[in-house]
């Protein structure tokens, strides 16, 4: 596990966020009839949590958690629109852009330069 700790914490956090998108989006397909899909969702969930933990060892917890959830929220919303045909309204797009602006702001002003 020591090699994971040596990776840039921001890269680790982004990968954790992308895994969050994967497991959150995969929840729509979890069922007893799809055991491999369900297992994949659980593996992505566990990996996302472990990588979030790794990132928080070098980044402020509030910043890391907010960015992780922001990546997950934006990614899941985009997957919902692109894959699941959820509505892509202008208001929804503005809200997604506000989340992205918050993520960028937290990164820029976190005080962590690891």
TrEMBL record:
Keyword Ribonucleoprotein among UniProt keywords: no
Coiled-coil zones: none
Entries under Gene3D superfamilies matching the protein: 1.10.3730.20
This protein's UniProt keywords: Cell membrane, Membrane, Transmembrane, Transmembrane helix, Transport
SUPFAM superfamilies membership: Multidrug resistance efflux transporter EmrE
Transmembrane spans: 34-53, 65-84, 90-109
Localization, UniProt: Cell membrane
Membrane-topology descriptor: Multi-pass membrane protein
InterPro entries listed in its UniProt record: EmrE-like (IPR037185), Small_drug/metabolite_transptr (IPR000390), Small_multidrug_res (IPR045324)
Assigned protein family: Belongs to the drug/metabolite transporter (DMT) superfamily. Small multidrug resistance (SMR) (TC 2.A.7.1) family. Gdx/SugE subfamily.
PANTHER family given in the database record: GUANIDINIUM EXPORTER (PTHR30561:SF0), SMR FAMILY PROTON-DEPENDENT DRUG EFFLUX TRANSPORTER SUGE (PTHR30561)
Protein name, entry field: Guanidinium exporter
Species name: Brevundimonas intermedia
Taxonomy of the source species: Bacteria, Pseudomonadati, Pseudomonadota, Alphaproteobacteria, Caulobacterales
